[in-house]
Amino acid sequence: MPTINSILRELKNVPVDKLEDLYSIIHSLRTNTRKAGRENREILSFAGSFADLSKSDYNDFVEHTKQTRENLFYRNINL
After folding, report:
1. Biggest CA-to-CA distance, the chain
2. Cα angle at 30 between 25 and 33, to 5 degrees?
3. Which are the contacts of 14, defined by CB distance < 8 A and separation ≥ 6?
4. Cβ 14 vs Cβ 24: under 8 Å
5. What is the 3-state secondary structure (H, E, C) of the chain?
6. d(CA 34, CA 58)
7. For residue 61, what are the contacts with CB-CB under 8 A and spacing of at least 6?
8. Closest CA to 37 of 26, 29, 49
9. Per-residue model confidence as pLDDT tens digits over 1-33
10. Model-level pTM?
11. Domain ranges of the chain
């Protein structure tokens, strides 16, 4: 795995006319990382959402979800 110092040494050899391209590439990597981090936080905000449900309520929810999926995805459609 490259270190920051080895990357910086390589950056010194980038031609001046390519610096804008390089900046765009680096910026796009940072943007994707931030976006993924935000999405991960949004998803994790649901963690523990079912903690307040009783076991019976949770089982009812799971069964209802299974039935709903079956009705949506395994139905006959006449075209």
Report:
1. 66
2. 130
3. 22
4. no
5. CCCHHHHHHHHCCCCHHHHHHHHHHHHHHHHHHHHHHHHHHHHHCCCCCCCCCCHHHHHHHHHHHHHHHHHHHCCCCCC
6. 34
7. 50, 53
8. 29
9. 889 899 899 999 999 998 898 888 888 887 665
10. 0.38
11. 4-73
**Two structure tokens written together for 55:** 């076991």
| Residue 15, both tokens | 């031609």
Q: How far is Cα 69 from Cα 78, in angstroms, rounded to an integer? A: 19
**From CA 31, how far away is CA 24, in angstroms rounded?**
10
Residue count of the chain: 79
